[in-house]
Amino acid sequence: MAGHPLDPLFHPRSVALVGMPRDVEARGSGFFHALLDQGYPDHHPLYLVNPNATVIAERPCYSTLLDCPGPVDHVISLVPARTASALVEQCVAKGVRTLHLYTAGFAESGDAALAALERTLVARANAGGVRVIGPNCMGLYVPAEQLAFYEELPRESGPVFGISQSGGNAGDIIRGLAERGLRFSKLVSFGNGRDVAAAELFEYAAHDEESRLVVAYLEGVPDGRALFRALRACARSKPTIVLKGGVSQAGARAVRSHTASLAGATEVFDALCRQAGAIRVDTMDELQDLAVLLSTQARRIAGPRALLVGRGGGFSVLSTDEIARHGVDLPELPAEAQGVLREHIPIAGNSIRNPLDISSLTGEGGSAMRTVLRVAATTPGYDFMFATPDSAPARHSGASRHSAFGTPPPDDEAAREQERRALNELGELQAEHARPVVVVRRNRGDELVPDAELLRTALDAGLAVIPSVPRAARVVGTLLRWRAARAGLAAVF
Hints:
alpha/beta; Rossmann fold; 3 domains; six-stranded mixed sheet
């Protein structure tokens, strides 16, 4: 991507924090801690600017941007809106390439004078050769360049390119996908998007060789035609998932006060995504589930005929209803395959028609469980398989640990190893027979945070792990509708 107008944005050789608080625990200092956490100062100059300090956190601090001793590529503005004009002039004089206006209080305030100030600032910056991210945003996350806006984000790079108008939602996307093993090449939180905005970012992502999957959270569409062209270019070269905020009347009002965007008609936006070949989702969970699905062998699911290997009669009945609701079918297992299973599985407490209810096969399941899975993976006439292996204890959102049944067990490494083996076996089965597997990690009881190590094991094995049957059914249905809508377009994987 060298030579692309946005490329300097993602590869700054130095960064300045202008308006850095003297109190390193104060609001605005988070960027400083995030850059330290990523190790940015170990590889690049990091300048702190505050006219009221000479040293902050044992680092030299400069009165103005112009006093920084070396070239500055990227500026993060922490100054109030009323002083931003002077900063823009300094950026132009210093030869800054990109300015990130974390600063809020512009057009999103609803004040006409502040909206005019936003337009004037960005126009002046652009005229002086400076590109602007924002105002009112969190800016850049580029692990390969040690750039981040929150602490404890993964340092490793990956194939996901992120675009988000919201900084908070950007953090949720990064953390949520990181817990499930996915990593990012780049993510931009662009806020009001007066200069760098969604259309140009989609156009960049379309050609970025480091990115194979694009996820986006959008609120407003200031230039629908430009967005359509860029989104179409992106979606025709790689899978592109879009979550739209402001689809209700109340949501549209919230959008206006959040990023000064006009939310627009939902029907028009749906048509835009459909014609561009992008995947429109309705919730953050669906965005993350679909990103996982498209990053594993489950992306090859080409039809609605599924087998469900589960535990519990009632669970299987409700699962069947939920799966059917999303356009996925569970055809009865052929008599020949049922005969094979009946040789290995007791009649009492089990069902082998589809769903395959294997309640009595507890623990590892031994040879009988392997037989069930092999039959599910090899019986002709099915497109994929839902599987619900036993889940190891998962970490609760608090300090304690809970099992899949919501009771506090000891820290059971044996159970974790059991689930790890089950995931590896499902991965090997999927690879051997080319039948995609969607793993449903059935937790019961309190809300649980899945074990990141086990989820990374599954991802490395090409397995999609989804937290519940409703979410698994929904995301597969979304995938199938997207495939149908893309009929006639070039394959993206």
